[in-house]
Write a structure and sequence with these properties.
474 residues; mainly alpha; three-stranded antiparallel beta sheet; two-stranded antiparallel sheet
Length: 474
């Protein structure tokens, strides 16, 4: 009975070693047809050897025999045979995980060397079917799906490419590098946006926490402890964490533009503005800062919007674009803004930014800008007046009485303002109504403050009197 070593070396004698140290079974002729029989015979020999190695539990020998079969088919240009052998080897009884992993990784190197696109797709589909449901080749399967989706996208099948990418949940892959996971999810989001599936794009984007981009990459690299899972290195074509941060926020801007959520768009641009590579280059941060200013002004009044407005106004870089500094200053200052004067001043700048605001959105943004100025003016009036006639309010806003009433009502409905309109007499009241308990409580607090002041005054008078008497006795 032959031992494992004698079987292996008896097979070696029937073949030769090439310069790279791997078996050279290529005695084929220059054409595929002339060497077909010889190729089948060599594959049969290697299959017998692989069986012996597999049954005897020789991991290295099984991997070697399996990968040599694939290499033999590749060198012979027998792509159909290669696909068949991948399926046959993966389905053999008791096939070792290491052998399947080695085969998939070996065959993935042949994808770029396929003669045509159909052969490439067929090879990727074969490897995808072999790796499906096998956790030890989940990373390879994800990369295969990504390549197949890219091919489908290049062919114009966006929906099919998006469906392929959504089959893979890379967030559960423990051995995949963090940057590769993020890049894969971002690709899923991009394809969903391209097919205008905004609901699914939002769901997928929530798999990425924005805080992950603020982690110091240098502190993350540490030697894994014994027993920990080994995390693979990300491929060379995967962008860095800061580049992924920019891609993430650019995709989120596309999503928020669809929903006309100006405040979130400005926050996304703010995050891009904070990237070191952007902030160090004036050619990059000036356009981004301009966009931040425009979208903040377009955002409805909100505590978050007010906070971002003030923080942006304190940015020293804003002095490089004084027009926008003046614009933010006007919005922050509690004074009525004349819409006609403002529009005449910034119309040219707004037209330049229309490409940023996006074709059909440009006209709507102009209307929204006017709406924000009207809302700002109403808030200013409410700060200075407790009661005002609707006619006078319309004059201050440069609107008709009907338009002024409509804008005021919209702000009351959105709870941005508290106001009541007495339509028969045409008076707007900005004071909130108080019940008897609130009135009594306010009176009690005022009386308490008054008594405290009287007590402190008496104490000071008594103190001064005592000091004066002591001075006279001396």
């Amino acid at each position: 009975m032959y031992t494992r070593s004698s079987l292996f070396f008896s097979f070696i004698r029937s073949s030769t070693l090439n310069s790279s140290g791997s078996f050279d079974f290529t005695t084929r002729s220059s054409t595929m047809e002339g060497g077909g029989g010889n190729l089948d015979a060599q594959i049969e020999q290697l299959l017998n050897l692989e069986k012996q190695m597999r049954l005897s539990g020789d991991v290295a020998g099984t991997k070697k025999a399996a990968t040599d079969i694939l290499e033999l088919c590749f060198k012979a240009g027998a792509w159909k045979t290669l696909n068949d052998q991948i399926v046959v080897l993966s389905k053999r009884r008791g096939q070792l995980k290491q052998a399947v992993t080695a085969m998939v990784q070996q065959a993935m190197q042949y994808i770029d060397q396929t003669p045509d696109i159909e052969t490439r797709i067929e090879l990727i589909k074969t490897l995808n079917n072999v790796s499906a449901g096998k956790i030890y080749v989940e990373i390879e399967r994800a990369r295969l799906i990504k390549r197949l989706a890219k091919i489908k996208e290049e062919q114009g099948h966006i929906a099919e490419a998006a469906d392929l990418m959504q089959e893979i949940a890379v967030e559960t892959f423990g051995a995949m590098a963090k940057t590769e996971k993020i890049a894969f999810i971002l690709e899923q989001v991009r394809l969903c946006l391209d097919r205008q599936d905004y609901v699914r794009a939002q769901i997928l984007s929530r798999k990425i926490s924005p805080r992950v981009f603020d982690i110091d990459a240098s502190k993350e690299k540490k030697k894994p402890k014994e027993g920990d899972g080994v995390v693979e290195e990300a491929p060379a074509d995967i962008p860095s964490l800061l580049e992924l941060k920019r891609i993430y926020y650019e995709l989120m801007i596309r999503y928020y533009i669809h929903n006309n959520d100006y405040l979130e768009i400005s926050r996304c641009y703010k995050a891009i503005y904070e990237i070191p590579s952007v902030k160090e280059n004036p050619a990059q941060w000036i356009p981004v800062l301009r966009k931040i200013c425009w979208y903040l002004v377009l955002s409805p009044y909100d505590p978050m919007q007010s906070s971002l407005l003030n923080s942006t106004l304190e940015d020293k870089n804003l002095s490089e674009i004084p027009y926008f500094r003046l614009l933010l200053k006007q919005v922050v200052t509690m004074e009525v803004i004349q819409w006609t004067a403002l529009w005449n001043t910034y119309k040219a700048e707004f037209e330049n930014e229309k490409s940023m605001l996006g074709g059909s959105l440009g006209d709507k943004a102009a209307d929204d800008l006017k709406q924000r100025i009207i809302e700002h003016n109403i808030l200013v009036v409410s700060k200075y007046y407790s009661r005002i006639t609707l006619k006078r309010l319309a004059e201050l806003l440069c609107l008709t009485m009907q338009e002024a009433e409509k804008h005021l009502s919209d702000m009351v409905v959105s709870k941005a303002l508290v106001a009541k309109i007495d339509r028969p007499i045409g008076i707007v009241c900005f004071q909130t109504s108080k019940d008897s308990n609130n009135v009594l409580n306010s009176w009690a607090m005022n009386l308490e403050k008054l008594l405290d002041l009287v007590e402190k005054s008496c104490h000071q008078i008594h103190k001064e009197t005592m000091i004066h008497k002591a001075a006279l006795k001396a």
